[in-house]
Q: What sequence folds into this?
């Protein structure tokens, strides 16, 4: 594993207790630093925190916020919950997936954008809702989403690292 990769991890694990209580926070920091949870890194986290590897993977798989697959520079989450569904989310989701030639959970070939679907973002009255790089956009339409994606692909990614 590259030295830079290990340096990042050393800084994340610095001053952490050897305990499963630290696990979720460490995984959040790892995902913020690497943009996903690389297997090699999870193995080191398991050793350093003295948490069984199976428990590390259980937590990593349980929370939708974590991903074991690399993501693009930008993350677009489209709500496909009931309220957003009846307000047209499937229509603009299908169009955007076709335009970008990806399926939900995949990343565009240029590694710019990952599109994921979620069941409810807790803002049903404002639906359809999408979240791009952590920012919520309400009353989404196909045209608004297309414009948002076009604008985003020209911008550098914001760090998704937790503060
Ligand atoms: S169903 Fe989309 S925010 Fe609740």
A:
């Amino acid at each position: 594993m590259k030295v830079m990769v290990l340096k990042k991890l050393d800084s994340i694990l610095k001053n952490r207790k050897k305990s499963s209580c630290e696990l979720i926070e460490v995984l959040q920091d790892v995902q913020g630093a690497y943009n996903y949870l690389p297997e090699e890194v999870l193995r080191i986290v398991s050793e350093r925190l003295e948490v069984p590897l199976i428990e590390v993977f259980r937590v990593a798989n349980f929370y939708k916020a974590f991903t074991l697959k690399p993501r693009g520079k930008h993350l677009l989450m489209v709500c496909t919950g009931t309220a957003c569904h009846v307000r047209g989310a499937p229509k603009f989701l299908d169009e955007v997936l076709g335009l970008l030639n990806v399926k939900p959970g995949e990343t565009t070939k240029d590694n710019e954008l990952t599109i994921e679907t979620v069941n409810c973002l807790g803002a049903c009255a404002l639906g359809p809702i999408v979240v791009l790089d952590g920012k919520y956009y309400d009353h989404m339409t196909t045209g608004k989403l297309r414009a948002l994606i076009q604008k985003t692909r020209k911008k550098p990614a914001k760090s998704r690292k937790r503060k």
About this structure: Residues 79, 81-84, 120-124, 127, 129 surround FE2/S2 (inorganic) cluster (CB under 6 Å). The longest strand covers residues 74-79. Helices lie at 3-13, 23-34, 39-49, 53-62, 82-86, 89-100, 142-154.
